């Protein structure tokens, strides 16, 4: 940047390259809107005759903070461009997590009443992870339990905006492949087209949730599953579609019947699909485009292979879940690959091969443009094909062939971004595992190496349960505060696809 | 590069000069076959049977000659593209040759061809993983042959790292520019030859120095167990960062003096040989001190040692005094991919085990005999990622990657990044195969043990965790796993790409 160009930028950007105040103002607006969501659990609380005050308090605090942030920014002209986007989404998710944790602290929920713990639970909610510090699920009343579910559902709404409107502009997400134009230099003036796209996928998201709630309620009413009350039907629908995995039950879906399990399998699978393709197939009849999608094909193949492996293992050995290998094997494969993290059996005690399969699945995720976390299939496809191209280059150094996806060439920048993402993901996974193992060896639960791996993979990939002390029927509460903070950070990083958070820690981002 | 276009007729339907490549590999095998004369002499000296070695020499020489005959007159057409095939086939033939004496001796531990191949592959790739259960039951000449395969493998690796892989855009060529200025010019081969000869001299010199040091330790009474035989045997497997030992309990059988001496030489063996040459022979120690790869290499060794020492100290696993010695020895041994053990670490707790497995992915410097990913690639990767994070803020940013102040060619950077991804992918697939096979056919393994066994063979380290721990053996694995691990050692040693390209149809076609 030349001096003249720098001079032209005078004004709010004199010392900082980015408009922090403007970004804060935008975050404030978002938090203010978000604070309204506390009204839903208030209604639930009133309906069940429980105390609405924790939610009203949380809503009031969040609303006040949001307003205050907006006020600060209101005095100055806003110059929030795409560069501020990283700061805006990082802060928004952080504040959303804090807001999500507030009711737990205000109500003094046992196990969640310390701010660090409440933040973890809130982060696990808004990142749709599903890792929980709760031990005593009976201590939750209906409204508090529903609030936990709701944080995941709201997180899912946010992810759709991220995936389709924001991350592609920040050159992060794989959805640059989506042919939608992304106009507008100002983040707070999302172009009409993007707004339409987002609204469309919100409709799909809401529709899927409603559909699942109805399906589950029907399972309950018809007597296929006596335990599936309307409350449980709504609660589980709210966490399936965002691939979250919270459950008001301490033993996740173990207590429910086979019919419930199969319904949830179907909806988890749908939630892991690319919403754009799903929309096209459902409303425009573009079923062939869906079936010919490279990502969907890989999704099916990986899922079939993993489910097959688990089913065979459950059928041949005497393990928890061996009573019905097909159902439990398929369920666990889908739940872990999509990063939902529901469990029908306690897989923490499974043998080596099954556990390794489960941890491997945590690195896949679903399709890009879904609410799943982790690496995502699109990136696996692109990286694998770029490695194939590198091998071709080793033989024919002069060859220039593009990496292809769905038969059309992928821009080199997209390939590069995918490779960088995978490497950063691996790096964070290794670093996270290291810190968790180091911390646990000094101050925390006894972990096996796989427990450390799976805990890091599960939080970074926004999956939820891991093995060992953080297993599906257990709780993350045995970890020390250091580990709890590290895992909260991993969930945050993983959800925002790493780069938007990482750049905030570089000098380059703030200067020039 | 333009060979294919200028000589269309000669290659027939194949895109490569197959006969010529086989001929070159055959010639190399013929030279290599002479090496079995050494253990034959030792056998005579100890009054053991020299016939397994002489037989191996005869067979290898005959096969090598036969192959050379096939390619007679066509070697000149062997270009860079055939290089992949030559390298891959040569290492395979070398391993087969190394296995011959084991098979011919009829020793019950190695009488199955696959097992013998595994042991020999572990030798020539300087891995150090062993299928033997009773190492001390071997004849002395046979034990020395094991050590010698590693030493010969190390010589091969120097040529590979220096001459072959950079041409194939695999290795870290940028480090060579100090030795080999300019682009690939006409006298590349001559230059390479003289450089290789120099580094071979360094390799032999360092081995000799270690032999003398170990002999001195033995004679001065610092370590009674260090006989002249063991001095030679361990020097032969230290310099190539191999890790075979004729002792069943590896270095545990020796005293502290030996362990510190080996620690020092393992560190040296993991340093860029070109750098050592410049620092010592050319008297430019500054170049070495300022070398970024060397700094990171030493830092990683210190960090790894520190974690191990801290845990050993805290948990009082080996006694406070020994914590420093064992911690340093084990970190250096695993990181440089040597694989000696001064203590049986397979029973350690989670954190030190994870540290050891992590160190298996570090490796030594480029142009050393160490295997695994190697420090320079980690360094390049870190810089690439830093640049890419910055680039996500400033899209227009064009920033070259530098190493030691020199700009690194983007193709080299890309090759390093691809290598790491391929390495991780191979590791994952290898772990999957071994996990699947051990679930079906045993032995029973914990996940970390599966990962360790894969990482140790792919990274040419040597020992894994139980049952393949440093004092254990790889013999309890099924044939499928044994074959998989043999392939992993082969892949890892040749830096993956030369073997992987052979699997593509494109390589063979025009």
Keywords:
heterodimer; A: 512 residues; mainly alpha; two-stranded antiparallel ribbon; 21 helices; 2 strands; 1% strand; globular; B: 510 residues; two-stranded antiparallel sheet; 63% helix; disordered N terminus
Walk me through the structure.
Chain A is mainly alpha-helical. In chain A, strand 1 and strand 2 form a beta hairpin. About 4% of the residues of chain A have low confidence. Chain B contains 21 helices and two strands. In chain B, strands 1-2 form a two-stranded antiparallel ribbon. In chain B, helix 7 runs parallel beside helix 9 and helix 8 packs across helix 11. The radius of gyration of chain B is 22 Å and the shape is globular. The two termini of chain B are 12 Å apart. The N terminus of chain B is likely disordered. Classes of the chains: A mainly alpha (512), B mainly alpha (510). At the A-B interface, helix 15, helix 16, helix 17 and helix 18 of A face helix 15, helix 16, helix 17, helix 18 and helix 20 of B.
Structure summarized in a few sentences:
The complex is a heterodimer of chains A (512) and B (510). Chain A is mainly α.
């Amino acid at each position: 940047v030349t001096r003249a160009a720098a001079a032209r930028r005078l004004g709010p950007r004199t010392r900082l390259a980015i408009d922090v105040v403007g970004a804060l103002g935008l975050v404030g607006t978002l938090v203010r809107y978000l604070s309204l969501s506390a009204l839903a659990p208030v209604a639930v609380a009133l309906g069940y005759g429980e105390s609405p005050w924790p939610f009203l308090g949380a809503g009031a605090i969040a609303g006040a903070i949001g307003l205050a942030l907006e006020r600060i920014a209101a005095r100055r002209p806003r110059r929030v461009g795409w560069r501020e986007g990283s700061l805006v989404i990082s802060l928004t998710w952080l504040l959303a997590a804090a807001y999500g944790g507030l009711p737990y602290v205000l109500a003094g929920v046992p196990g969640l009443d310390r701010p660090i713990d409440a933040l973890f639970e809130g982060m696990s909610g808004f990142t749709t992870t599903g890792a929980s510090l709760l031990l005593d699920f009976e201590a939750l009343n209906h409204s508090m339990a529903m609030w936990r579910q709701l944080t995941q559902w709201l997180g899912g709404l946010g992810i759709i905006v991220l995936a389709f409107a924001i991350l592609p502009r920040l050159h992060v997400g794989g959805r640059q492949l989506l042919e939608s134009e992304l106009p507008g230099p100002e983040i707070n003036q999302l172009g009409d087209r993007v707004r339409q796209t987002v609204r469309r996928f919100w409709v799909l998201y809401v529709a899927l949730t409603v559909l699942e709630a109805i399906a589950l309620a029907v399972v309950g009413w018809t007597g296929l599953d006596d335990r599936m009350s309307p409350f449980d039907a709504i609660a589980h629908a709210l966490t399936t579609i965002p691939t979250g995995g919270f459950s008001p039950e301490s033993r996740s879906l173990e207590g429910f019947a086979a019919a419930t399990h199969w319904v949830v399998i179907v909806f988890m699978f749908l939630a892991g699909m690319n919403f754009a393709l799903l929309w096209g197939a459902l409303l425009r009849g573009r079923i062939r485009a869906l079936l010919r999608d490279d990502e969907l094909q890989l999704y099916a193949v990986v899922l079939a292979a993993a489910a097959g492996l688990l089913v065979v293992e459950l059928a041949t050995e005497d393990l928890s879940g061996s009573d019905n290998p097909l159902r439990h094997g398929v369920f666990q494969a889908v739940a872990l690959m999509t990063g939902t993290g529901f469990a029908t059996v306690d897989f923490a005690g499974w043998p080596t091969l099954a556990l390794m399969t489960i941890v491997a699945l945590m690195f896949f995720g679903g399709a890009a443009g879904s609410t799943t976390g982790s690496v995502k299939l699109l990136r696996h496809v692109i990286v694998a094909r770029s490695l194939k191209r590198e091998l071709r280059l080793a033989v024919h150094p002069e060859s220039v062939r593009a990496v292809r996806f769905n038969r059309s060439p992928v821009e080199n920048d997209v390939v590069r971004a995918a490779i960088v993402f995978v490497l950063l993901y691996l790096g964070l996974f290794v670093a996270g595992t290291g810190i968790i193992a180091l911390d646990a060896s000094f101050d925390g639960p006894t972990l096996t190496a796989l427990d450390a791996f799976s805990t890091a993979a599960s939080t970074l990939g926004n999956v939820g349960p891991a093995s060992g002390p953080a297993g599906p029927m257990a709780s993350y509460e045995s970890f020390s505060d250091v580990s709890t903070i590290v895992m909260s950070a991993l969930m945050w990083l993983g959800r925002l696809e790493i780069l938007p958070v990482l750049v905030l820690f570089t000098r380059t981002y703030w200067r020039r | 590069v333009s060979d294919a276009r200028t000589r269309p007729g000669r290659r027939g339907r194949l895109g490569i000069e197959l006969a010529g490549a086989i001929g070159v590999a055959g010639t190399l095998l013929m030279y290599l076959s002479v090496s079995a004369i050494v253990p034959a002499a030792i056998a005579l000296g100890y009054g053991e049977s020299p016939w397994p070695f002489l037989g191996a020499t005869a067979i290898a020489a005959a096969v090598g000659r036969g192959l050379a005959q096939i390619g007679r007159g066509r070697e000149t057409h062997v270009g860079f593209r055939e290089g992949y095939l030559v390298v891959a086939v040569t290492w395979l033939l070398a391993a087969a040759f190394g296995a011959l004496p084991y098979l011919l001796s009829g020793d019950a531990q190695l009488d199955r061809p696959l097992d013998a191949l595994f042991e020999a592959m572990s030798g020539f790739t300087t891995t150090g993983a062993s299928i033997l259960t009773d190492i001390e039951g071997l004849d002395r000449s046979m034990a020395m042959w094991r050590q010698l395969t590693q030493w010969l493998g190390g010589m091969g690796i120097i040529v590979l790292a220096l001459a072959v892989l950079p041409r194939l855009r695999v290795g870290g060529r940028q480090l060579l520019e100090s030795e080999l200025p300019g682009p690939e010019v006409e006298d590349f081969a001559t230059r390479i030859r003289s450089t290789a000869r120099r580094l071979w001299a360094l390799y032999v010199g360092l081995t000799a120095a270690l032999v003398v040091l170990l002999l001195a330790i033995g004679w001065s009474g610092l370590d009674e167990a260090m006989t002249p035989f063991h001095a030679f045997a361990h020097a032969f497997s230290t310099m190539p960062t191999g890790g075979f030992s004729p002792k069943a309990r590896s270095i545990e059988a020796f005293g502290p003096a030996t362990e510190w001496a080996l620690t020092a030489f393992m560190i040296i063996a993991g340093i860029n040989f070109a750098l050592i040459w410049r620092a010592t022979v050319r008297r430019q120690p500054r170049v070495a001190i300022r070398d970024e790869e060397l700094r990171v290499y030493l830092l990683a060794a210190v960090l790894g040692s520190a974690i191990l020492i801290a845990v050993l100290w805290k948990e009082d696993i080996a006694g406070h005094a020994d914590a420093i010695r064992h911690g340093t020895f084990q970190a250096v041994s695993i990181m440089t991919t040597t694989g000696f053990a001064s203590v049986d670490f397979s029973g350690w707790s989670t954190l030190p085990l994870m540290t050891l497995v992590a160190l298996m992915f570090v490796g030594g410097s480029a142009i050393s005999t160490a295997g695994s990913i190697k420090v320079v690639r980690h360094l390049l990767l870190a810089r690439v990622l830093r640049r890419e994070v910055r680039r996500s803020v400033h899209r227009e940013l064009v920033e070259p990657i530098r190493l030691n102040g020199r700009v690194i060619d983007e193709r080299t950077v890309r090759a390093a990044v691809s290598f790491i991804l391929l390495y991780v992918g191979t590791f994952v697939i290898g772990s999957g195969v071994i996990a699947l096979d051990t679930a079906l056919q045993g032995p029973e393994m914990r996940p970390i043990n599966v990962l360790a066994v894969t990482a140790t063979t792919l990274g040419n380290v040597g020992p894994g965790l139980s049952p393949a721990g440093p004092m254990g053996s790889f013999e309890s694995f099924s044939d499928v796993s044994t074959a998989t691990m043999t392939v992993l050692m082969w892949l890892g040693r040749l830096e993956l790409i030369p073997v992987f390209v052979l699997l593509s149809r494109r390589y063979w076609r025009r």
